[in-house]
């Protein structure tokens, strides 16, 4: 491979990496994965959990859920944030 071609490939590769990190679809996928790893074995249908969340505004739902999950299968703060984000998103559909 010529040097110029190689450089173009590296450039295209880093653009792809930036894009994957930045698009909402990329993070939504990570959020869904966190849910399947931590919750799906007991709550198979995320949308059912999402619709059952108590609270009026999203912020209230999110803070109640966050408090519950601290002692309900999502002790890791990063995983918990992903799961809360995922369920709040689903609750609006
Ligand atoms: C080992 C099984 C198990 C796992 C794993 C699990 N749950 Fe639960 N969850 C339950 C049971 C049992 C209940 C109580 C009965 C019910 O509401 O289904 C419950 C209740 C809940 C409730 C309602 C609580 C309330 O008081 O309103 C929510 C919301 C919830 N779980 C979310 C989650 C989320 C999000 C995860 C992933 C971090 C998760 N659960 C992981 C078994 C589990």
Describe the model.
With 93 residues, the chain is an all-alpha fold. It has one domain. Helix 2 packs across helix 5 and helix 4 packs antiparallel against helix 5. The chain is elongated, with a radius of gyration of 18 Å. About 5% of the residues have low confidence. Bound molecules: heme C. Heme C (HEC) binds next to helix 4.
Set down the secondary structure blueprint.
Elements: H1 3-22, H2 24-38, H3 46-51, H4 58-69, H5 77-91
This protein binds heme C (HEC).
| Shape label | elongated
The helix count comes to 5
Biggest sheet overview: none
| Mean pLDDT level | 85
Termini distance? 49 Å
- Helices and strands, in order, run as HHHHH
Secondary-structure content class: mainly alpha
Summed up:
This protein is mostly helical and 93 residues long.
Could you list some keywords that capture this structure?
93 residues, 73% helix, binds heme C
């Amino acid at each position: 491979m010529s040097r110029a071609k190689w450089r173009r490939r590296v450039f295209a590769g880093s653009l792809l990496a930036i894009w994957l990190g930045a698009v909402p679809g990329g993070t939504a996928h990570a959020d869904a994965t966190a849910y399947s790893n931590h919750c799906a074995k007991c709550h198979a249908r995320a949308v059912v959990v999402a619709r059952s969340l108590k609270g009026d505004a999203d912020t209230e739902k999110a803070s109640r859920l966050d408090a519950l999950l601290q002692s309900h299968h999502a002790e890791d703060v990063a995983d918990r944030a992903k799961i809360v984000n995922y369920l709040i998103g689903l609750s609006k559909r």
